[in-house]
Amino acid sequence: MAAPLTLVTGGDQMAAIVVADDDEAVRILLRFNLELEGHVVVGEAADGSAAVSVTCEIRPDVLVLDMMMPGGGGADVLRRLGEDACPSRPVVIAYSASPTHLQLAGELGADATILKSGDMTDLMAAIAAA
Prior knowledge:
Blueprint: E1 6-9, E2 12-20, H1 24-36, E3 40-45, H2 48-58, E4 62-66, H3 74-82, E5 91-96, H4 99-107, E6 112-115, H5 121-129
Parallel strand pairs: 2-3, 2-4, 4-5, 5-6
Antiparallel strand pairs: 1-2
Helix pairs in contact: 2-3
């Protein structure tokens, strides 16, 4: 397995990120905003099973995880990552429109939880703190 990716650009440490969301438009929007901030999206997943596979294969710095996806949602992804399904666990930032799902994400070990609002400020702050 390859070592986890940590990218350094212009003296600033930028994150290698996997985006997991079942909505392609949301993945495109997240990729655009993350790359605008200088981060690198190294993988994407449209369901929970693919999120675990891509995360374990690529070993990113950060996993941005939608809590409501088919094929094993965010809760299943967090459980599998918590069971040492991968050689190394990234920082997991869970997001959802549901505060209940975010509470569950926190209980399952998400490093940060973000309410889906369309505003990228909270997400960027969580990535910067990672």
